[in-house]
Amino acid sequence: YVFHQTDDNGKPFLDMGHIIDSLNKLDNGSTERILLTSRDEKSLLVVSFADVQRCLEQAFSKLLPIHLQHAQLRHPGSLHSHAAMMYGYTPQM
C-alpha cells in the first residue's frame, strides 16, 4: 500500500520513504507493475506506473481547460497565469 498502510497492531502508518519512492516511479513513468485495490478489496487492477501516469495526465489535460474557462468567466482578464501559458490556453473573447 502507498497511503493505507498499517503497522503490526493495525494502526494507520505512513512510510514516507515508500510514498516518495512510489511517487518518483509515477513521475518517471516506470514500467514496474503494481496492484491497485479498492478499499473493500473486491476490485483489483494490475497496471504499471506508466499506465497510471498516462491516466492522470489525460484527466488533468481534460480538466485544466474547463477550470481555466470557468476562471475566465468569473474573473475576466485574469488568466495570465503560468498554467494558462504553459498549457497554451487562449481565452475566447
What's the overall average pLDDT, rounded?
80
What fraction of the residues are assigned to beta strands by DSSP? Answer: 15-25%
Structural class: alpha+beta
Q: Main sheet?
A: 2 strands, antiparallel
Q: Oligomeric form of this entry?
A: single chain
Termini, distance in Å? Answer: 47 Å
Can you write the helix and strand succession as a string?
Answer: EEHEEHH
Q: Order of strands side by side in the largest beta sheet?
A: 1-2
Give the number of DSSP strands: 4
Shape: extended
Number of helices in the DSSP assignment: 3
Q: Give helix % range.
A: 40-55%
Uncertain stretches: none
What would you report as the Rg, rounded to the nearest angstrom? 19 Å
How would you sum up this structure in a few lines?
This protein is of the alpha+beta class and 93 residues long. It is 47% helix and 15% strand. α1 (16-28) packs across α2 (49-74).
